[in-house]
């Protein structure tokens, strides 16, 4: 069974909108929307990983990161541990650096059905203004 450790960034602006991107057609959870991020490499802390991933995937330099939650999810073929970081201060303007579709969405409009199942609890908490 594959065991993956993932760090993702919930990029939120002052209008309480969140930047999300769409997963590539060829990837795991293809077509779902996600918080940008990816696998923690060996020797990295979760925070170092999310800083690197946000640079690689959406072209920003994250300045302040707050760990909101760490969740484990069991897929039929893999177990993933997800670290969710709130990012409210960064340099640059996020974009789909790898060509992936992206959008800003009001936090209150988030829909857990658009995200992979592992995101359900955090998306619901965000939608209900718990963060
Ligand atoms: N980035 C991201 N991945 C998520 C989220 N929710 C979720 O279940 N995942 C899962 O976590 C894993 C993240 O891997 P990734 O494909 O982003 O990893 P990566 O950026 O290092 O990509 P690479 O392996 O293609 O270089 C995938 O299995 C993905 O389906 C999310 O909100 N954001
Ligand atoms: Mg990724």
From TrEMBL:
Record's protein name: 8-oxo-dGTP diphosphatase
E.C. number: 3.6.1.55
Keywords: DNA damage, DNA repair, DNA replication, Hydrolase, Magnesium, Metal-binding, Mutator protein
PROSITE patterns for the chain: NUDIX (PS51462), NUDIX_BOX (PS00893)
Matching Pfam families: NUDIX_4 (PF14815)
PANTHER family listed in its UniProt record: 8-OXO-DGTP DIPHOSPHATASE, NUDIX HYDROLASE FAMILY PROTEIN
Top EC category: hydrolase
Gene3D superfamilies in UniProt: Nucleoside Triphosphate Pyrophosphohydrolase
Annotated InterPro entries: Mutator_MutT (IPR003561), MutT-like (IPR047127), MutY_C (IPR029119), Nudix_hydrolase (IPR020476), NUDIX_hydrolase-like_dom_sf (IPR015797), NUDIX_hydrolase_CS (IPR020084), NUDIX_hydrolase_dom (IPR000086)
Cofactor(s) demanded: Mg(2+)
Keyword Metal-binding attached: yes
UniProt cross-references to CDD domains, sorted A to Z: NUDIX_MutT_NudA_like
Annotated signal sequence range: none
Catalysis: reaction(s): 8-oxo-dGTP + H2O = 8-oxo-dGMP + diphosphate + H(+); 8-oxo-GTP + H2O = 8-oxo-GMP + diphosphate + H(+)
Family per similarity comment: Belongs to the Nudix hydrolase family.
Domain Nudix hydrolase, residue spans: 1-130
């Amino acid at each position: 069974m594959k065991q993956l450790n993932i760090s993702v960034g919930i990029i939120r602006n002052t209008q309480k909108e969140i930047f999300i991107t769409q997963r590539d057609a060829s990837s795991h959870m293809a077509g779902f929307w996600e918080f940008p991020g990816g696998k923690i490499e060996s020797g990295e802390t979760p925070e170092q990983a999310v800083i690197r991933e946000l640079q690689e995937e959406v072209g920003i330099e994250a300045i302040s990161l707050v760990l909101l939650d760490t969740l484990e999810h069991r897929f039929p073929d893999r177990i993933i541990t997800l670290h969710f970081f709130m990012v409210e201060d960064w340099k640059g303007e996020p974009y789909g650096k790898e060509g992936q579709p992206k959008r800003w969405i009001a936090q209150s409009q988030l829909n857990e059905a658009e995200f992979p199942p592992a995101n359900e609890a955090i998306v619901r908490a965000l939608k209900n203004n718990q963060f």
